[in-house]
Amino acid sequence: MLTRRAFAALTAGSGLISLMGLFGCHDRGSSGELEGSRIRAVRYTSGGGMTGGGDSTELRRNKDGSVTLTTRSKEWHNSRETGMDYVVDASAFDRFAEIANEYDLRGASKRKMSEYQALDAPTSHLSYDLMTEDGDWDLDASFTISSEQELTERDRDGWRAVTTALAELAQASVGVPYLEPILLTVSVSGYQYRFYLNDSTAAHDLAARCPLEGELEDGAPNEKVLRLDEAIDVNNAPLATGVAGTLAYFEPETSLVVIHTDEEPRDGLYELGFVEYEHDIEYLSEMRIGQAYLWCNVADE
User: I need a labelling partner for 212 at 20 to 30 A (CA). Which of 104, 119, 147, 179 fits?
Assistant: First the structure.
């Protein structure tokens, strides 16, 4: 299923490739036949526009030598991203090198931008990230083609050949489903602290109420506390173990609890999630008391 995906889905480095490709700023090192062993990634993105959702498919060579194919789809800007992850053979890059050579996709990347571009219309991009012989990122040889360029019919045939090959590769592989985690951000005194929520009813209940605001207070010696106006449904929520970095809900006091130092578990304390990065645990004890704002990366239903 192809929907729309914002161009922001590209990584910062890939975005730089795209901008340079669109303006024809990297001709050096781009002559000659492209070899599959020189391709670091092939990426297709589609989307943007009014919905902010979209699709991406990426074939990538990883640092550990493995090759992965990932597909992602987002229906609208505040929905959960879904997709599949596949492990494939590196020989898959040979096919994409053949297509690039057959249709001269590097030449297509130099086409000028069209004068007719609808404001906030969905756009698509096709990118080839290339490597030097030493395995470093070759910015000069990498290229991107945009649907906003004045492409020839041959260019479009090559584009379709790439997207078809990506789809066929996915169909021939066994994938693992992906569902974007729900990420809760707590902002207080100008600092932000982020927690991945678990899949419990209580966590989904909390996400559905966001955005929220309230007063963050010092609780027990190992905790920061924010009291809620209404109780959370803890029907299938796991009991909190008291490990530092845990975001929990304390039922007797209808409050959210950030555990910044290991403590003993106790009745009525339920786990909702855990801090995004473990190295951030040491900063949780420094959370300042005061007005706090909570929001999620997705609108949970």
Answer: 179
Angle (CA) 189 194 196, round 5°: 155
The single residue listed with the structure tokens 């910044």 is: 260
Burial of 6 (0-12, 13-18, 19+ CB in 10 A): buried
Task: Check: CB of residue 288 under 8 Å from CB of residue 68.
Answer: no
- CA angle 99-104-105, nearest 5°? 75
Name the helix (H) or strand (E) containing 187. Answer: strand 183-188
Q: Is the pTM of this model over 0.90?
A: no
Q: Which alpha helices (DSSP H) does the chain contain, by range? A: 12-22, 92-103, 105-108, 153-171, 201-209, 281-284
The residue among 61, 94, 109, 92 whose CA lies nearest residue 166 is 92
Query: Could you tell me the two tokens for 32?
Result: 């000659």
Which residues have C-beta within 8 Å of that of residue 198, sequence separation ≥ 6?
A: 238, 271, 272, 273, 274
With a cut of 70, which residues of the chain have pLDDT below it?
Answer: 1-31, 49, 117-120, 300-301
